[in-house]
Amino acid sequence: MTQGPIRTDFDQYMFPTYAPAPFIPVKGKGSVIVDQQGKEYIDFAGGIAVNALGHANEKLKKALTDQADSLWHVGNGYTNEPVLKLAKKLVESTFADKVFFCNSGAEANEAALKLARKYAHDHYGAAKNEIVAFTNSFHGRTLFTVSAGGQPKYSQDFAPLPGGIKHVAFNDIEAAKAVIGANTCAVIVEPVQGEGGVVAANSEFLQSLRDLCDQHDALLIFDEVQTGVGRTGHLYAYMHYSVQPDVLSSAKALGGGFPIGAVLTTDKYASTLSVGAHGTTFGGNPLAAAVANAVLKEINQPVFLQGVRDRHDLFVTRLNEINEKFGLFKEIRGLGLLIGCELTPEHSGQAKLISNLAAQQGLIFLIAGPDVIRFAPALNIPVKDIETGLARFTAAIEIYLKKE
Question: 227 with 234: CB under 8 angstroms?
């Protein structure tokens, strides 16, 4: 295979914002990617829960190329057919009445938080501006969303940060009750904290947040950037919990690899962002909307979503078998195909090393902090690829333990 740009070109020409792997993927099909040297890897990372239908999915390719032959971009002084079709699909499939489109999860959460502040300002006055979020949460990298995220390591170097944001312990009902009050305009929560360690919310916790928001006239925002579009075995995770938010942010899997984000809400709140109140140049782009329509058509089917839940069961069964042999994990947790394996204290801080060893064996996956291995593969990953990937995972663990 002909080698193009090499890894050292990253150091020479790009911001040092990332620390990419030494190999460069050049091709992918389904749940397998190939690097410049022709080495194959099973993909359990899914582009950070983005490639919901795998690499080079034929139906997504067709949707993109068909749209590319017609209309690419017009800006939001106009609308277009693909985005209207997509909005209709999302409304008909969820609690929402209206949708706002943008380009990423951070932008979706930014818009959701701005909506909440403006709604409270318009209806209750300027004092009702406080946002409640949770420790170890992650909501994006804009200054507003990184401040709402409950991980100071991502925000502390960018002060002064936007104010009026309080953080309390995740899954702690009493802590939430202590801070949600008359001046709270919004509570933002991930049904499953992804970057925070793949920790699922308790049903009672989310219901309590719903009740507290109702009591104090605050908006309940579900950040479903990572949990949305089939990731948990439901179209959106709120459906698993049977707790309805006022506002929901979506991105990642919505485009199946093409950048798109969305904010879903009801008529009551959507009217807050009237003409000129918010905007984005690329949001609602016809190319992105066409691909997202194809993604939803594939994923939003009972048989497909059941397949996600079945794959979850297979993963957990095999991971428990691996753990019985090696005793490496304190806990295996998550919903659908968002799965976290927390290392025992004896192996604290070693998630990245295990990830590197797995890549040598031909498997890529994510980490969620130094102690959690995170799997977020394609939702349609073939069973044979799951088995092959976990065999390579086992081989990596064996090498890791020998190095200990």
Answer: no
